[in-house]
Amino acid sequence: MAWYTREGEWLLLAIRVTPGSSKSAIEGVKEGMLRIKLNAPPVDGSANKELIHLLSKEMKTAKSTIAIVAGENARTKRVRLPLTPIGEEKIKEWDETAQ
Hints:
Layout: E1 4-7, E2 10-18, E3 25-30, E4 33-37, H1 46-59, E5 67-70, E6 76-82, H2 85-95
């Protein structure tokens, strides 16, 4: 399975998060998933909120347009967000890091 798919006007990303890291950062694509470190614990949805905040900032889109569609209580997640020109650029950038 690819780490991202296009569905009409949406992007669906396969993400593996590492909560409780020293800082929030997108590490790139590894083993078929976008790897993201989160500076938030996996408690009471804090890590999910930080994930949405980080993606919103990176993709320059509103937090309200981003949704975790699978894996809300897991490290492996499927996230849907709008397909934008900036999003297309980020996908290409992250795709180049694929290992």
